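Justification of resources, computational component.

The compute hours requested in this renewal are based largely on the per-chain cost of generating structure records like the one below. Each record pairs the submitted sequence with a full structure-token output. That output is archived, and it is also reused by downstream analysis tasks.
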Amino acid sequence: MALRNVESRLERFFERGLSRPFKSALQPIEIGQRMIREMDLGRRVSNRGLLAPNHVKIWISEGDAERFEGFQRALVEELTETARQHALSESYNFVGPVEVELFVDDELSLGDLHAEVTFVGGQSEPRVIVSDGSTHPVGTTPVVVGRSGECDIVIPEPSVSRRHAEFWWTGEGIAVRDLQSTNGTIVNGHRITAVSLSPHDIVEIGSLTMRIELA
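The structure output for this chain reads:
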């Protein structure tokens, strides 16, 4: 499942205009697969469950770097999100924010790559991830969801109340609270009043779904 997700995320680079490579050239999917393999090999068991490396360094050849010219920033963003998605699917935790760096090694041949993963501690960056592609950091001020244009996450649908629900940081994680909405806030198929969330929980409000990410 994880590798299929990598393919679906990274194959879009070909659709965006990156020419199909020669057989010897490196493909973005191969980078994602190597990254996931290194994360799996580097995981550790802790009192917080399984910890995965959160800092990824990848070296590619000069020829492949030229092919990715103009796409490198987008590629790094996709690889970073792929790492987060893989951690979610495998129930991995991180010790800090995920960071992927891409380097050029002129000693590597076309199609070759080298990857290293490490654990780098840092301040967590909890956020709400919405199915429309937007993300919203959760800090000291709650993230409000509703139909009103003054909300942080606006869902312009009649079934959504003007101020429908809010996400807030509890000091240990993120929780969601229904703001006495007309049609309720659904978490994992159940209507809730207020509940703490894990990254696997799915929050439904109107036509959108949301989940959280803690690091």
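The two ends are 22 Å apart (CA to CA). The chain is about 25% helix and 30% strand.
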